Amino acid sequence: MPLIRSRNHDPRLTSAGCSFGGYHAANVALRHPDIFTGMLSMSGAFDLSSFLGGYYDQDCHRNLLTHHLANLIDQWLLNRYRRNSYILASGWDDHCLAQNQNLDRIMSAKDIVHKLSGIRGIPTAGPHGGACLRSTFKGSCQLSVVSCQTVSTQTKQPAPLTPLTRRNRNIQHARFVFNEKMNLRSPMTALNPYANFLDGRPVKDILTATPSTLAGLIESIGPARIAASPAPGKWSPAEIVCHLADCELAFAFRLRQTLAETNHVIQPFDQEKWALTYPGTSANQALDVFTLLRGWNLQLMRTVLPQAATKPVTHPERGAMTFQTIIETMAGHDLNHLAQLHKLAAATPSK
Predict the structure, then answer these.
(1) Is the distance from CB of 167 to CB of 9 less than 8 angstroms?
(2) What is the distance, to the nearest Å, from the Cα of residue 146 to the centroid of all Cα atoms in its chain?
(3) Domain at 186-347: CATH code
(4) End-to-end CA distance of the chain
(5) What are the C-alpha distances in Å from 114 to residues 7, 27, 211?
(6) Where does the chain hold its CATH 3.40.50.1820 domain(s)?
(7) Dihedrals φ, ψ of 42, to 5°?
C-alpha cells in the first residue's frame, strides 16, 4: 500500500480478481473498506466451507464472506460499505453463479450499493474454463466504467468521504499494516476501536473518573437541554447516558463470560435497536445504573487482575482479543462519549 500510494495519489482504489482471485478481491475489499473504495469480483466463490473438511472456527467465519456478512451488525463497517462501489460478475454458465447471487441477496439486505451482472459465457469452454473467465473479464470491464450509484434507486447512499479524508485514512492504514508486519504496534490498537482516545492515559483512572465526570456534565447541560437532540438522527445527552449504562451492562457480561468460559465468543448487539427504549428515561436514572455497574465492574477488575489480563476471548467482527482488551475498550468508549457530552455542554446557553 505505501508503494501504491507513492505512485498513484488517486483516492480511489479497487480490488479485482477472477475465480479464487475473485474471492480474494471481495475478501480484502470487505475486510478493509477504508482502504478499498471499490471491488470487482469475476466468477468468485464466497462460501469455501466445502474445502475445510468440516473444520470451522472464528477465523473461518470471518473469511467466509456469506457467513460473516449475513450476521454483521458493526455499523463502522456497514457505513463504509455503503460509501463504496462493488461489482459481482459471473457467467450464466458458471458454477459460481449461485454463490454470486447469494452474496447479492445478502448485500441487498444490508443496503450495500452494488451490481450483480450475469454475463454470457462460452458454453464450449466449460462452466468455469479460461475462455469463460476471459468473457466474464471483458464484460466486467464494460461494467466497471459505470458508477454503482446508478444501480439501485432504493438504496440511500451516504455522502462520500472527501479525497483528503480518504487519503489520510489510507495513509494511516498503510502505516498500521507496516507496523503490524514489523511487530511495532500495540496489540490493543487493531482490536479496540477507541484506542486513539486513550492517548497513553492509565485505563484504571479513566474508568474510575467517568461516573463523577458524567454527573458534572449532566448538571452543566441542565434539565432544559438534557433530552433535546442536537440534530436530526442524533442522540440527546440523556440518550448518550442511557447508552453508556446499557454498554456497561454489556461489558459486565462480556468480562464475566470471558473469565468463566474457554475461548468465549462475544455476542455483539445493535445499539440503535437498544436505543429505541431510551425516550422517556431520565439521564439521572441512567447515571445511577451506570455508576452502580461501573463500581461492580471495577471491583471485579481489582479481584482478577493482573492474572486474568491475557485470558483470550474472540469478537466475531474484530477477531481474537483478551480480557485486558475489553477493559481498554471500555475506557476508550467512555472518552468517546464524554467528548460528545463536553461538546454539547459547551454549546448549552449559560443560565
Answers:
(1) yes
(2) 27
(3) 1.20.120.450
(4) 53
(5) 28, 15, 44
(6) 2-163
(7) -110, 115
Three-state DSSP at 42 gives: strand
Rounded Cα distance between 344 and 326, Å, is: 27
Fold for the domain defined by 2-163: Rossmann fold (3.40.50)
- Closest listed residue to residue 193, CA positions, set 273, 75, 72, 35: 75
- C-alpha cell of residue 298: 471495577
pTM, full prediction? 0.52
- 326 vs 234: CA distance, rounded Å: 26
300 vs 312: CA distance, rounded Å: 17
117 grid coordinates: 451482472
**Residue 41 exposed, middle or buried by CB count within 10 Å (0-12, 13-18, 19+):** buried
pLDDT tens digits for 260-282? Answer: 999 899 988 899 999 999 999 99
Is residue 131 within a helix (H) or strand (E), and if so which, with residue range? helix 130-143
Burial category of 52 from C-beta neighbours within 10 Å (exposed 0-12, middle 13-18, buried 19 and up): exposed
Give tens-digit pLDDT for 184-231. 333 334 456 777 788 788 999 999 999 999 999 999 999 999 999 998
